[in-house]
Amino acid sequence: MATALSMFKSKELVWYFISPKEYTSPKNKLMKRTTPSGYWKSMGKDRKVKEYKKTLVYHEGNSSNLVWTPWTMHEYLMG
């Protein structure tokens, strides 16, 4: 269960995680959003919200063998 990933115990279906930016390599600006069993994929356009908000959906597997999941993440990028 995903609640095991959070340090905060909650019965809510919404969790907030704060993490530093991590790029796929020092030479490019692609954000790393992989997990041991899948990855987060950006959906739609970036939207201005104080800074920027990006919506991502989680896929299990890799890009050639993916399985859609119902998980959605909203990423907020701040200055």
TrEMBL record:
One of its GO terms (cellular component) is nucleus. It is found in: Nucleus. GO terms for biological process: regulation of DNA-templated transcription. Keywords: DNA-binding, Nucleus, Transcription, Transcription regulation. One of its GO terms (molecular function) is DNA binding. Residues 1-79 form the NAC domain. This is NAC domain-containing protein. It comes from Brassica carinata. The lineage of its organism: Eukaryota, Viridiplantae, Streptophyta, Embryophyta, Tracheophyta.
